[in-house]
Amino acid sequence: MDHRIEAAIRIMQMEESRHLAIADLARRVGLSPWHFIRLFKAETSLTPKQYLLNSRMKHAQELLGHSFLSVKEVAANVGFEDRSHFSRDFKRMNGEAPTNFREHRRRNLA
């Protein structure tokens, strides 16, 4: 994998809870935004935005399944300022709302 894309992925992981603008991320790894998006997709099969959202949702699944944080706190921990936006994206990607996901996960662990 291209070292600049690896660096961008490390930045995304370290700064998951912050808003990351694609232009800033591209600048930090020494690429133009257009070239960065094209190279990122070629290397990962996802756009940077898709990759970051997938990463945030995986982390949210872990928090919902293994912590007692509220949905609002989980949303904030994975970089969403708006709980309803988080819930809508979570449901779109996982097929169920965060609270339902948590209930099913806990029931399966019991």
Which structural category fits the helices and strands? mainly alpha
Count of distinct strands: 0
- Roughly how many Å apart are the termini? 41 Å
**Which oligomeric state applies?**
single chain
Task: Tell me the count of domains.
Answer: 1
Mean pLDDT: 92
Helix content: over 70%
What can you tell me about this protein's structure?
It is a single chain. The chain has 110 residues and is mainly α. It has one domain (3-109): Arc Repressor Mutant, subunit A (Orthogonal Bundle), CATH 1.10.10. 74% of the residues lie in helices and 0% in strands. It is built from seven helices and no strands. It has helices at residues 3-14, 22-28, 33-44, 48-66, 71-77, 83-94, 98-109. It is elongated. It starts with a helix and ends with a helix. The mean pLDDT is 92.
